[in-house]
């Protein structure tokens, strides 16, 4: 097997406007994927303990959050499979598949019978559908980030790839906005048909993203590699042989994603059970913080193009560690305006820095022939921490009075691990795309 790294052939630049189109397609695809994903997270915090685990008593919240985490178990498996095909047959084809799989799985969740109807088969079917969501998400961000990075000009890669994660925030905003009227419904409707509507609505958004994404062509670097038969036959084998250190580095850096689940899922439960904050208010906190992040993440991406990926990422990680206890204690204060201010600072001006930069930061560690696999496998192994963060912290008392201490310590540890791992990486902001990942 040849391990010669292909370079971008002169004259294969993308047509004018393609970087913007790739960024838009990534934004919309991520918005769809993570609308579906965050709808599940909101339901796991507020709905599923009543609908799928009514006989589990005090353990209902832990079991419900565990279903949220099951998707993260499927994601490494999906990363290997989808990474292989993404590096073999192309980014665009795999991205079309992930979009449709996520949409189908989410729609099916909205149709599932509850525990009272079919007993334990209800949570079993919920887990199976959640596993399909995880398989889909495993390839979405890696594929979208790879495609956008490879279409982008050398000096603006971080800005354009930041739109992949900005789409993620857009999906979370949409999910929260849809869920706000649901939690305001009377219990009989909310736990009956009400909670199902957001899952059914995902079908509409999937169709919109599908028609936009299908017109996007493969990046020039990948197209040239395929034309000259320089595609790896076994991308994962090449990845682990040539880039195993970078894969391990991405795994540890990707722990930072747990901040998002602490903020968007665990904090909702903490606010309701400990701080006695109305669920509508906490959902609005998520909405407002993510709306502001829609503007700050591209700015952080631009900053990373100027001063480098590492300082921006490390700042985001350490700021998240510092702001987590401040945010949780603010929830207990009862001062709603202060809650909104701190949530925006925490998420949109702290965590958003690392979130915006990681698609370029991680993607630039790998060459074209293994980039999809490297991004997918590295991030999905790291994202396991994010998936099980709510269940782990709930199990150790994080959603009980005084639990802000456990949540803060947990978040600080993962943020420091991510920052230290990032500090060991090569700075790649000034490296031409054709030379990325070359030893």
From TrEMBL:
GO terms for molecular function: transmembrane transporter activity. PROSITE patterns: MFS. Its main location: membrane. Keywords: Cell membrane, Membrane, Transmembrane, Transmembrane helix, Transport. The chain crosses the membrane at residues 34-53, 59-82, 94-112, 118-138, 159-181, 193-212, 247-268, 280-300, 312-331, 337-358, 370-397, 403-422. Residues 22-430 form the Major facilitator superfamily (MFS) profile domain. SUPFAM superfamilies: MFS general substrate transporter (SSF103473). It comes from the Bacteria. This is MHS family MFS transporter. It comes from Arthrobacter cavernae. The lineage of its organism: Bacteria, Bacillati, Actinomycetota, Actinomycetes, Micrococcales.
